[in-house]
Specification:
The chain has ten helices and twelve strands. It is α/β, with parallel strands linked by helices and about 325 residues long. Bound molecules: adenosine-5'-diphosphate (ADP) and magnesium ion.
Length: about 325
Amino acid sequence: MFPSKTQKPLVEVRGLSVDMPLAGGKDGLRIVDNIDFSIAVGERVALVGESGSGKSVTARAVMRLDPVARLSGKIDFEGRDLLTLSEKEMRHYRGSSIAMVFQDPMSFLDPLMTIGDQVAETLRIRGIGRVEARKRALSVLDELGVDRAAERLGSYPHEFSGGMRQRVVLAMALVGEPKLLIADEPTTALDVRVQDQVLDLLDDVSTRRGLAVLFITHDLGVVAGFAERVMVMYSGRIVEDGDVHAVFKDPKHPYTRGLIRAVPRIDQDLEELYAIPGAPPAPMARPAGCPFNPRCSDAFDRCRAELPAVLPVTGERVACHLHDRKGA
Ligand SMILES: Nc1ncnc2c1ncn2[C@@H]1O[C@H](COP(=O)(O)OP(=O)(O)O)[C@@H](O)[C@H]1O
Ligand SMILES: [Mg+2]
């Protein structure tokens, strides 16, 4: 649907909804609501939106990481619907076809295990011998710019800086040679300089390996330099999806416009910093109509009554009544 380097889809998500069980309630709470998106082979896509919009729940759904989450729809990965796989089949995909890195590397690392053993473990689980697994671990750490990687295989996580730990976690994700890497706010806890280094690294690895990346962030500021396409999420739905330059140049959804305005600029005084008024709704308190309508300065009657469909708008997909000719 979107121009990309290969056009060949790697993952195609259709009508994905995620419901979380509620104590006592049988319907559960709808966190992600009927979303569609695809990612091509080697494509770099950013998923952005304020905290609480459903980005992590979406990412975890693709990997089927939440045992209690109820998933519906389709997640086609190279032609197989992940939602129809058994847990055992799914385990084969995690780490080898799809890998994930998270915001806080420390919570992911075992403080009592050496870096070398942790990176090699993904392979050991898959039955690869100790010597070969260490060799590949070393080569990935090298690829990710860990100095003197051979010496450091025997180090423990506390001996590494924050940026280096994030490289180790990346190495753990990449050692299984996945085709899709889901990076959930991997740079949010890092200072700006280290954040840039990690992004450059991801950029290199993605290009060299033809690795597709779904990069999740609440910070639109980091998106432009890295992603080719951006998907904007609000209240469990994708409200805008398009080429990153097109979206930055001419955002179609008022929410995207607000997010872009809220990115701090170097030449700006702190008092001038813009913030979208209000806060996103909790999943149990979504307003009728468009979930963004109470915060939207362009809202009109229809926005308070009817949920906007996701429609094509000049090469993008947008869910906003302002762009639906029928209603405008
Ligand atoms: N296991 C769960 N049970 C119930 N609600 C959840 C669960 N996980 C996340 N949520 C809710 O889903 C919404 C989206 O969460 P999340 O995907 O973590 O947001 P984001 O990553 O965009 O900040 C939030 O309102 C959050 O409280
Ligand atoms: Mg999150």
